Amino acid sequence: xxxxxxxxxxxxxxxxxxxxxxxxxxxxxxxxxxxxxxxxxxxxxxxxxxxxxxxxxxxxxxxxxxxxxxxxxxxxxxxxxxxxxxxxxxxxxxxxxxxxxxxxxxxxxxxxxxxxxxxxxxxxxxxxxxxxxxxxxxxxxxxxxxxxxxxxxxxxxxxxxxxxxxxxxxxxxxxxxxxxxxxxxxxxxxxxxxxxxxxxxxxxxxxxxxxxxxxxxxxxxxxxxxxxxxxxxxxxxxxxxxxxxxxxxxxxxxxxxxxxxxxxxxxxxxxxxxxxxxxxxxxxxxxxxxxxxxxxxxxxxxxxxxxxxxxxxxxxxxxxxxxxxxxxxxxxxxxxxxxxxxxxxxxxxxxxxxx
Length: 355
Ligand code: NAI
Ligand code: MG
Prior knowledge:
Blueprint: E1 5-14, H1 17-36, E2 39-45, H2 50-56, H3 64-68, E3 73-78, H4 86-98, E4 105-111, E5 126-132, E6 136-145, E7 153-159, H5 162-177, E8 183-188, H6 196-207, E9 215-220, H7 221-230, E10 237-240, H8 242-255, E11 263-267, E12 275-279, H9 296-309, H10 312-327, H11 341-354
Magnesium ion binds at residues 246, 250.
């Protein structure tokens, strides 16, 4: 008989509370692996983040793709520091991973483990938001000229390709087809953005017949915010552009409880590169170093990572443990609890042991 399955994971905590929540996620990952006995995880710590940048002058070494290709997956924390402009830290670290590694599908599940913010049923929040993660508003095309003049100009050009839209649309229809409700909402703003987002609409119509089991509808992004608040039960799977789902997923996380619980999987569906799993939130300047960050987003991301690697049972167990601690209010202050980050992670490990 062969021994337990083994996974090599790169751990990139990054900055701020990213460091705190990734440490917490590792506690839970190791507990899940030990409990299962069917797999082991080999963790390699990678120090890429703002401290590294200040020392070396770059966020990522030039051979970062070669380094990362040695791993089965990456667990990432957050990037961003008060004394480095956000567009530098984000573009030099996280966005450099998403684009060049072709992590084109960003999957953001939403569930409500406690009382929702609004007066609705928590079961109404069982959504899967899918963000196009390689082009659109984040294509990186643009520039500035005439700096400091009255006629200074700045452009950020959105780029939408048939290839890019079709692959995310197929991914989204396929994801919807595997969910109980099998419904997809395609979010655009094709009334105003009459080229790229009209192409999105057209490709949705082209791809839909490949997935006859899925029902689908369209929504403009502004109307989608209303629907999320007023009719959350009509939503199942959602697909949209890089910027639109970035914004909608923060709203979704807040509606369902807290930004601190939301997780995000940057997937290479072709599995040529390691996928990157992270909490949705950033480095949270206002609470970093205080040890009070909610670790659930990072722990959920770790569970998603296990599922992606094929360890569905262990992933389900972590999600059950998260649900149980939330019911028992063994959570951090952002969710109305009294635990600090370490205690909240320990509570999840205990809940795991009690399953
Ligand atoms: P943020 O997500 O860091 O914080 C927004 C608000 O949510 C803050 O009040 C924060 O305290 C709270 N919050 C976030 N995570 C929490 C958690 N786990 N537990 C409890 N409360 C939590 O977003 P912000 O303030 O816009 O950005 C701060 C820095 O993070 C910037 O440098 C930004 O560029 C970066 N950022 C990085 C991301 C990433 O690495 N994926 C994503 C978002 C922002
Ligand atoms: Mg965001």
